[in-house]
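B., you asked whether I could sanity-check this one before it goes into the benchmark set. Here's the sequence:
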Amino acid sequence: MKTQTEGFRIIHELPDRIRLRLARLAQPYFAVPEFEAQIADLDGVRTVRTNRPARSLVVTYDGRAEVRASLLQWLAALPPNAFLNRCDPEPSSRPNRAPLIVSSLALLLLPLLPAPLKAAVTLASISPTVIKGIRTLLSRGVKMEVLDALAVSIAAAQGGFFTANATHLLIQTGGYLEARAERQAHGLLKRLLKRPPEQAWVERDGELRRVDASEIRENEHVVVGPGDSVPVDGRVEHGSALLDQSALTGESVPVRKEQGEEVLAGGLVTEGRLVLRAIRVGEDTAAAALGRYIEESLRRPSDTQRLAEQLGDRLVYLTFALGGLILALTLDPRRVASVFLIDYSCAIKLGTPLAFISGMHDAAEAGILFRGAQALENLAGADTVVFDKTGTLTHSRLEITDVVPLRSDRSAEQLLALAASLEEHTRHPYAEALVKYAEHRGYRHVDHGAVEFVIAHGLNTVVNGRKIFVGSRHYLEKHVGISFASHEQALSDRFAEGKTLLYVAEDKTLIGYVALRDQVREDAAGVLARLKTLGIDQRIMLTGDARHRAEALAAELGIDQLYAEQSPDDKLRIVETLKAAGGKVVFVGDGVNDAPALVSAHIGIAMPRGALLSREAADVILLRDDLEGLVQARELAVRTLDLIHSNFRLDVVVNSLLLVAATFGWLPPIAAGMLHNGTTLAILTRSLKQRAIPGTLGRSGSFTAHPDLGNETEPTV
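And here's what the prediction gave me:
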């Protein structure tokens, strides 16, 4: 059955399986992993497989006709330039199986051919390996490709055509499987990328229009319903919905989004309907930024990777020298061929980057993004963690702890209503916290006159003929002339508890205050304790906040060392001092003023609600708004480095035993090639094995961009 449809052709299908031919798969810049991931996300789809050389797409599904129709409709709607990378050709295209097939046919035909044709077929079959070895020798020196060429050439020169062809087939098989493993490793991270939809519904000129997602402009209203992917980063203007954000945050349970909340491009609406105001579009969305981050991580090798490359190259010379020595002592070419087929470099050079890529994939699935393998390696070796306070150890929001009237004719409810009625006119974080708290308590609005703002100090107005002031102590004491002398002890007690005070005065008399404090993260104390057990010797808090608040929090969380009232330059200086003292420093922050320290530290970790600059400067981004990801990142980094070291030991032990056996003539070339390739593939499989991170399922959080609140000093309005 062959059916022609726009952009593709149906080649064959069964009730739950369909094979199609797509010309676009032949394009060198086509992003196959992202294309496959989008199809896999369609409802009812079970598996997706592509074959680029054959331009073939095979999809299995649950057999429903609507699933088939949805797939064909989705393919037909793809624009011509969909899934095209802008820079480099797709690095993870399928390995070429043609040399493997040719080598297999040559080996099968060999017994049927006369001697002269056996030589010709063998020469033709092994020529790609021989030519590759010669080119490698001329361009890069003695590498594994040279040893492979020598091994098959020695066997063929002795008339061992079967041995030469069988050895060549093993070499081709090993190379093919290694290339597949490398492709799978790159695909692990690439499959995490979920591109926003190609088209979306937008309100324009009073009507709903279907437009290309690339044409959406900032501040336009975008409508998404059940089954729709979110095409922009936006804020909910109307409606509510359950949103699957697993592609961005790793959270397994859809989260509810309502009016006023932020939604990220790439999320999928599972229930409900949203009208969004576009905030960031196109390449400025969080999904696009994460895509660039992942792409960059694949191009950043670590010191361990570079060392593995260098060590692998040196060990090739050891194998080459050993083969020369055996030839000189025994004059046995078979032993030399066996030795040349065994080396240490394959598993070391391939297994190390694959382990790093697999580790970064596991981390990304848990909501942790590493900017390259070096970041993962640095985190594994860290011994000092420096935390910013606001937005890191605490949430980027304040909570009201006390409303305290200082006159008997004023109740706490009256004081709260008075302060909230004035504060609702400003958007300062202290004002937002106060108004939200008052609304939750069901306060009654107090009528007042025009509000006068005193920038960075407070505000005032007139209520029932009396002048009302709300703001900091500095404002009320220095600008208005109000005395605080009779309340010093009570205020000092509040300060000792790490609270910030917002004062309310009537005419020249202080009538009460509202106490606020940073909302400490629920997991902060537990995370700090666990970091200690994971080998982090120093846990330091570095903040621009007032000392009394910082000291209270440090005592509550068990911080080892505190630096309070620090400027951004001070933060940078302290990180540099810790590094100079020999510490392997991790800095965790979220604000614009944290960016210099994030860059200076051995590894900078940014919280998801942090400023854009802090995320750009960081080596690791936590996609969930909690600190648990920090512990998970440390555990995974240590585990990945342990895996690399154990792979190295396994490679050395097994290949050393094989070399000894080959040296004494106990291993013919075919057996040597099989055992060596088997060892290499076993190590690559260990490197690629996904290691689930405990505690990553069923947790909620989001990756959102919030403006930095800056350093907290006296409350202002």
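One thing to flag: Confidence is low (pLDDT under 50) at residues 1-5, 86-93, 692-717. Otherwise nothing jumped out at me.
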